[in-house]
Amino acid sequence: MPLSLAPTSHRPNPLDRPSEEPRYGLREKAKASLCGIYKYTGAMGAQERIAHWAGRRAIAVLLFHRVTDEIPADGITIGTEWFRRMCGMLRRRFHIVPLGEALQLLDTPAEMPRRTVAITFDDCYRDNLHAAQILADHGLPACFFVPTAFVGTNHVFEWDRHLKPMPNMDWDDVRAMVRLGHEIGSHTVNHADMGLLDPAEAGRELRESKQTLETRLDRPVRFFAYPYGGRGNFQVDYLPLIQAAGYEACFSAYGGFVRPGMQGQVLPREAVPYFRTLVNLELHLSGCLDWMYALKRHFGLQPSVG
């Protein structure tokens, strides 16, 4: 099936990469309180049961970049303790599956369990290895998308230049994640903005990153995630190059759920650092806030995340 773009999400591109720690003021506290009321009065469970009975199925693919206490939280960074608590919540209240299994469920939506979630990471920060261990401790599988040219180097992303040095993983770290039971995917060779490359350069980034990973890890690489991941960071005309390189699926970084019928499309992911509380994250991933997003769209309001 030829690849195409998934429908435009109602949610903003998560990779605006804010550099300041989010502020948790009265608005966030009020929202957390309302989310708690919605959950503990039983309204959330009732809404989920009705949606499942009506045949509305969806999978959330989560997107992370950094899990560290070395720098303040921002649009791509969350703290270790928050991540650990989130893993506990996901294990207790969601059905976490490997990325490949999540995609297989799209072909059999009637068999899709409620609250199905897959977990992904981008960019090969070395703190990902510690995150991989926390995930493994909770029995949660993940897929880590790696830009191969940066593994084992001191490369610093432009948006990190104001921060203390954030080391990258080396190949031993990547292999250690595989031994923990996680999957590795391609994020191009040079974290390239595919929307700016000509077809030959784009094809080379896709092929060489896959070849390097498969040689280094001695296992097939099935999935690709676009660097930057916004709708302007890839060209529709280049989508056949992904299939030609041998990938089974590809992912963006703009928000939205993966739904039956989206096979063969560029699939959305949800950036978790934008959620202020675990109960807000739980309500969102369960689909129980869709009515609120629809109401905001109806009145022309920009939906906020978390």
The profile of the biggest β sheet is:
6 strands, parallel
Let me know the CATH homologous superfamily: Glycoside hydrolase/deacetylase
Mean pLDDT: 85
C-alpha-based Rg, rounded: 19 Å
Percent of sequence in beta strands: 5-15%
Report on the structure:
The chain has 306 residues and is α/β, with parallel strands linked by helices. The protein has helices at residues 26-40, 43-53, 80-93, 99-105, 127-137, 171-179, 199-217, 239-244, 278-285, 290-298; strands spanning 4-5, 59-64, 66-67, 77-78, 95-96, 116-122, 143-146, 183-186, 223-225, 249-251, 265-267, 270-271. It starts with a strand and ends in an 8-residue tail after the last helix. The chain is built from ten helices and twelve strands. It has a single domain (4-15, 23-298), classed as TIM Barrel, CATH 3.20.20. Helix content is 36%, strand content 13%. Helix 4 (99-105) links the parallel strand 5 and strand 6 (116-122). Strands 2, 5, 6, 7, 8 and 12 form a six-stranded parallel sheet that branches.
What secondary-structure arrangement, pairings included, does this model have?
Blueprint: E1 4-5, H1 26-40, H2 43-53, E2 59-64, E3 66-67, E4 77-78, H3 80-93, E5 95-96, H4 99-105, E6 116-122, H5 127-137, E7 143-146, H6 171-179, E8 183-186, H7 199-217, E9 223-225, H8 239-244, E10 249-251, E11 265-267, E12 270-271, H9 278-285, H10 290-298
Parallel strand pairs: 1-11, 2-6, 2-12, 3-4, 5-6, 6-7, 7-8, 9-10, 10-11
Characteristic key phrases:
306 residues, alpha/beta, TIM Barrel, six-stranded parallel β-sheet, 12 strands
